[in-house]
Amino acid sequence: MIVMTDAAANISAGSFGASAPAEASDAFAYDVKKRLARLRIVSRLCSVIGAVLLAAVALLAISATVAPRFMGLQSYAIVSGSMEPSFPVGSLVYAEPIEPETLAVGDVAVFWRNDEVVIHRVEENLYEDRELITRGDANEGIDAHPAQYDNVVGRTVNQIPGIGYFVMALASLPGKLVLGWIVLMGAAFSIIGTAIASLARQ
Description:
The chain is of the alpha+beta class. The chain has a domain at 70-161: Umud Fragment, subunit A, CATH 2.10.109.10. The chain is 50% helix and 21% strand. The protein has helices at 6-70, 163-170, 173-201; strands at residues 74-77, 92-96, 108-113, 116-126, 131-135, 147-148, 152-160. Helix 1 crosses helix 2, helix 1 (6-70) runs antiparallel to helix 3 and helix 2 crosses helix 3. The longest helix has 65 residues, at 6-70. It is rod-shaped. The protein starts with 5 loop residues before the first helix and ends with a helix.
């Protein structure tokens, strides 16, 4: 038979009482670690979203304006279906300057007509009359009026489907507002991500 003295009982009770604060401290530390891990995930997510939004706007702007001018090209958005399926609506077309005399049958010419830019295929080059007979790929007949040499801008060399919508949006006030909102959202997400990351490190 084992008899526990009062001193031993007091020591034993004291040791059990001390374990409760230790367990509470461990639980608190674990909870803090979980919260910090969540903050880091949110921080990375916000930073990625912000970077993607800003990069997308920058890439579209470069594709539509900066890159063509750097390469000596002009860019035009396809707004009608007269050249489908070769040039779908919403495509961004790049054109190089060219002498009208060098345009061959089958080339796609860019020219002015009635204060509008037209992008149609050359059906015939009338050198003596200094005119081009043109037709849209989706149209049944040739254009009613020939394109004058003096109105020819160039010849298409490439296109990017879908990017033309971005250019068309920039031409309208609602489009500019939406673009500005996207830029602000991208910047806001980046700032929030940085702030949360700083908070998680403290």
